[in-house]
Amino acid sequence: MRKTYFIVSFVLFWILISPSSLMAGEGEGGAESENREAHGKEHFNTAGLVAHHTSDSHDYLVELPFFHKTIHLPVILWTKNGLSIFSSARFQGDNEGKVVVNDDKGNRLVRKHEIIYYADKIEGMEHPSLMDYSLRPLDFSITRNVLAIFFVFLLLSITLYYARKAYENPKRLPKGVAAVLEPIILFIRDDIAKENIGKHYEKYMPYLLTVFFFILYSNLIGLIPFAPFGHNLTGNILITFVLAAIALVVILASSNKHYWKHIFTPPVPKLIWIVMVPVEIAGIFIKPFALMVRLFANILAGHTMMISLVALIFIFESAKWGIVSGIFVVFMSFIELLVAFLQAYIFTVLTAVFIGLALEEGHEEEHAAEGSIQATR
Amino acid sequence: MEVLAGIGPGLAVIGAGLAVIGAGIGIGKIGGMATEAMARQPEFAGKIQGAMLITAAMVEGVALFAVIVALIK
To answer: Is the pLDDT of residue A198 over 60?
Structure first.
């Protein structure tokens, strides 16, 4: 039973993320070597490099020392003529809308800045609209980021499975993975859930733990700069959007009548309701919106900083800058390691705070508590 | 018009700098106040630290909104 829930929620998560995951692909697309060739010596395209490394793509470029290989991931489209599946190799690395792919359903497709359009519809358009789904098919492709989500899922399953095994003998102290994870899980239970949600905290523990570990693992694999790690997962606004949307659903699902009473009939004079009620209604959506942007901006800013520091070597075209940028990158990596844990903590604790607010009982005792605080001041 | 096109990115950089100043003042004040509070009441250090982190994250979040605006301008 639990397994079924697990599979269904996983599939739903994937479906939610996939179609939109390509909307963020505003990157330049071309590999950095291409940029260098095109621009010659005059100008090193740092913005293009950053965009290429932080955006999602259909091709997964595996870059290891002495090993370079492009893995062409499958393209899964829901077109006007039905489901269409083919390899992204058929685009031949093109990202400018030049190579036309004729799939077996009779569609003519082109790829422009990592987004697949109908070739006939966007002819002559410089910047076709992303939101216009008459111009492009629904894209359910297993892109680089989707692959990264599978990878995080795999890592989480393995580590948590081994952590669970340590508790099979209740007389022995947990060791190995469990000894690392137990303090974190206890911290989430005691300092995040119990503190902020209150007595019904147990119901929310699976959700909070899942969110915490998913964000933590995603942040951490973004810090390891070689394959199969090195994905910009939580630095993609669509993934944080899905996380925030789930948080909104959980908050609204746990809300009680006091929560809604506080929004629609706040305890202030009726004339101020004209201002208060719209602000309170906006507040419902601003809370998850802030969660979404905070996580996305923190991780993206970290990755951008890191790539820009490495790009210093190429901007100044001198190996000496390698020492400077090396020191800075090591320093930044330590900060990013802190940020990886901190952002996972902040997301979880704020979700818990919002759930706690939605669960809060009655006003009387709340105001009494406020009064006592003011009295002690 | 060409002059204006050059001004745009420059203004974005200045905006990002202003946002960093604001966030710096904010986080500095939070950190200073929190250490002061912890020195006064060491027994509540854990709670103060938690509150400090959450508030700092909020300030930082607002600053990062500005950074994102400067990035996409």
So the answer is: yes
Tokens of A279: 């602000």
Residue A195 sits at the vertex; the CA angle it makes with A194 and A199, to the nearest 5 degrees, is: 45
Residue A113: which region, alpha, beta or left (left: phi > 0; alpha: psi -120 to 50)?
A: left
ipTM > 0.90?
A: no
Instruction: Give me the pLDDT at residue A70, please.
Output: 86
Q: Does B68 touch chain A (CB under 8 A)?
A: yes
- Owner of token pair 């966007």: A122
The alpha carbon of residue B64 is apart from the nearest alpha carbon of chain A, in Å, by: 6
Q: Which has more pLDDT, B41 or A53? A: B41
Cis, peptide link before residue A183, omega less than 30° from 0: no
B53/A346 Cβ within 8 A: yes
Q: Does A191 touch chain B (CB under 8 A)?
A: yes
Residue A111 φ/ψ, nearest 5 degrees: -115, 130
Closest CA to A356 of A129, A198, A131, A160: A198
CA A356 vs CA A166, A210, A351: distances in Å: 32, 18, 8
CB contact under 8 A, B68 and A297: yes
* pLDDT interval class at A364 (50, 70, 90): low
Q: Does A301 sit within 8 Å of B67, measured CB to CB?
A: yes
pLDDT tens digits for range A252-294: 999 988 899 888 888 888 888 889 999 999 999 988 998 998 8
Distance in Å, alpha carbon of A170 to nearest chain B alpha carbon:
30
Give the per-residue pLDDT at B17. Answer: 84
End-to-end alpha-carbon separation of chain A, Å? 53
Inspect the interface and report whether the beta carbons of A297 and B57 lie closer than 8 Å.
no
Q: Where are the beta strands (DSSP E) in chain A?
A: 59-64, 67-72, 74-79, 82-87, 101-102, 108-112, 115-118, 138-139
Could you tell me which residues come within 8 angstroms of residue A297 by beta carbon, excluding any fewer than 6 positions away?
A: B61, B64, B65, B67, B68
- The radius of gyration of chain B's CA atoms, rounded to the nearest angstrom, is 17
A298 lies within 8 A of chain B by CB: yes
**pTM of the predicted structure, to 2 decimals:** 0.80
Per-residue confidence (pLDDT) for residue A185, from 0 to 100: 93
Q: Which one-letter amino acid corresponds to residue A335?
A: I
Counting other chains too, the contacts that A86-90 makes at CB distance below 8 Å and 24 or more residues apart are A88/A58, A88/A59, A88/A141
Give the distance from CA A245 to its chain's centroid: 12
> What is the rounded CA–CA span in Å between residue A48 and residue A27?
7
Q: How many CB atoms lie within 10 A of CB A372?
A: 10
